[in-house]
């Protein structure tokens, strides 16, 4: 009898990859999606983490992934919506940036949840949305991104109501977790100063919260903020 896997979208790097490996290490069956193939994918597949190529930018790509997943599995333990593109409003025509942000952060999670929720038929079942601190505050330079993460936060509330008591639905809303390689020192210093704790916590911070949510019997419809007290670091 195959163990129902945990699905993590966009988990071929950084936070998603850390969580996929850590959950697999704990003994969970894990399925990840990746958009761009790299040698790591072959290593992950060989280690027992099932890797499925998927681009969620358009509905056809979402449906293609759903069809592939349903051919391979009958049930799921959890769905972690991690896949994300972090575009500023200047990264092209604003209308196109808006459509792209809403597609990956709101429309794809909604369509995936609608299609895959019936597979969440284990005693414990979870959906976790990766949102963002700026969903609550807005962002002058990432308006479309922030709005799309706010939409995902609202979907968390709706799905928690719709899928209870079978499925818990929660969100993790990080501020800085891990910098990107291209972030320069000036950006890093400015960003670190935005929180009270002033650190770059790293991917483990998200995994600890994810593990806690998966083990919980009584948390649903909640947005768990991981932000070093940034909400109190007022001018
Ligand atoms: N890192 C941080 O400090 C913070 C992260 N977050 C959130 O946490 C989550 C993880 O962050 P992080 O690890 O930095 O994420 P990344 O920016 O590293 O992106 C994760 C993955 O998303 C995949 N992806 C992007 N667009 C698509 C698409 N159209 N279809 C399918 N997959 C796609 C990429 O796949 P590929 O590489 O294969 O193209 C990428 O590997 C995200 O939701 C992010 O918004 C929130 C606040 C802070
Ligand atoms: N998909 C992504 N979303 C976000 C990222 C990222 O690297 N990929 N990074 C951030 C920043 O860390 C921000 O929280 C602090 O500058 C936000 N979202």
UniProtKB/TrEMBL annotation:
- Record's Gene3D superfamilies? NAD(P)-binding Rossmann-like Domain (3.40.50.720)
Give the matching InterPro entries: NAD(P)-bd_dom_sf, Sc_DH/Rdtase_CS, SDR_fam
Q: Give GO BP annotations, semicolon-separated.
A: one-carbon metabolic process
Instruction: Report keywords, A-Z.
Output: NADP, One-carbon metabolism, Oxidoreductase
The free-text function statement in the UniProt record for this protein reads: Catalyzes the reduction of dihydromonapterin to tetrahydromonapterin. Also has lower activity with dihydrofolate.
Q: Which family does it belong to?
A: Belongs to the short-chain dehydrogenases/reductases (SDR) family. FolM subfamily.
Which protein is depicted? Dihydromonapterin reductase
């Amino acid at each position: 009898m195959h163990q129902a896997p945990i699905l993590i979208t966009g988990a071929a790097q950084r936070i998603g990859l850390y969580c996929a490996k850590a959950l697999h290490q704990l003994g969970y069956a894990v399925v990840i999606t990746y958009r761009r193939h790299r040698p790591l994918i072959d290593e992950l597949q060989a280690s027992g983490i099932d890797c499925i190529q998927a681009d969620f930018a358009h509905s056809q790509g979402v449906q293609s992934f759903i069809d592939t997943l349903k051919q391979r599995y009958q049930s799921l333990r959890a769905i972690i919506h991690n896949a994300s593109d972090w575009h500023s409003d200047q990264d092209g025509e604003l209308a196109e940036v808006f459509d792209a942000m809403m597609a990956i952060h709101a429309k794809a999670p909604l369509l995936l949840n609608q299609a895959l929720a019936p597979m969440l038929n284990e005693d414990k079942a979870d959906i976790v949305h990766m949102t963002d601190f700026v969903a609550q505050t807005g962002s002058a330079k990432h308006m479309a991104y922030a709005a799309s993460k706010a939409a995902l936060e609202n979907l968390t509330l709706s799905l928690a109501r719709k899928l209870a008591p079978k499925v818990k639905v929660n969100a993790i809303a990080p501020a800085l977790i891990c910098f990107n390689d291209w972030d320069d020192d000036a950006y890093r210093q400015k960003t670190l100063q935005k929180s009270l704790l002033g650190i770059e916590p790293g991917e483990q911070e998200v995994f600890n919260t994810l593990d806690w949510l998966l083990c919980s019997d009584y948390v649903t419809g909640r947005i768990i903020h991981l932000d070093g007290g940034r909400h109190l670091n007022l001018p």
